[in-house]
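pls ignore typos typing on phone
adenosine-5-diphosphoribose + seq
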Amino acid sequence: MEHNAELIEKAAELIKNSKYAIGFTGAGVSVESGIPPFRGENGLWNTTDPSLLSLSRFYRDPAKAWKDIKKIFYDFFGQAKPNAAHKALAQLEQKGIIKGVITQNIDNLHQEAGSTNVIEFHGTCSNMVCIKCGKKYRSKDVDLNNLPPTCKCGGVLKPDFVFFEEGIPEDAMNESQKMMQKTDLIIIIGTTGEVMPAAYLPHTAHRNGAKIIEINPHPSTFTNSITDIYLPMKAGEAMTAIMKNF
Ligand code: APR
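k done
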């Protein structure tokens, strides 16, 4: 634990001296909010076939896909609340110390914690889009008792998050790449770094000279390649300790 205290100090110093720090988060930042990760211990993909979220499967049988999607992403995830890590990132943004968060998560917890500059690289559960006419709806206004939910035009609604076989939202990609040119410090929290193109982003920043702090109880693809300070801790625990310096 002593070693972690020194690492926390060093991480806080890096954050204090940064000019354009950003957060880069994955499923691990929401585990302490009760949302399981996709991989590793209690990973969703250990018990659910990832093809549940493949675009071709959704189009082939939307009613069937929606049954699982509703159960996992709306009934279960829907109750989660931001944890200390989400709140710490929001506080650091309010203090002007971090400029924003790029998240792979679709749970809206960064925004609920108070972060305002959030790039949702994989979209969001909060909206749905008609696959026929493109009209967008707020998920909370959509009745999920009759599946699949449909648009006024009769088309099927799809959650507005990125399915496998689906591209990254263009504005999210463009905004993220702009941030990678400007950032001098990325705080990576809770991601295996196994899913592209999201995982390319920290490498781009690192090539541009950015420092990397990583918080994850287990090493990721970043840890032994680009991470400068690796905190082998849970997100809430590490960010709470870091915030003691601000
Ligand atoms: N605090 C911090 N990190 C944690 C915690 C915690 N309490 N618990 C688990 N982790 C770490 C795990 O060690 C793992 O490295 O969070 C990471 C979760 O990894 P994944 O489940 O692979 O999540 P992520 O990297 O965000 O996945 C990327 O894959 O399935 C797609 O679109 C989905 O956005 C997701 C993408």
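Strands lie at 21-25, 98-103, 118-120, 123-130, 136-138, 157-161, 185-189, 211-215, 229-231. Residues 26-28, 31-32, 37-40, 43, 104, 122, 189-192, 194-195, 215-218, 220, 234-235 surround adenosine-5-diphosphoribose (CB under 6 Å). more later
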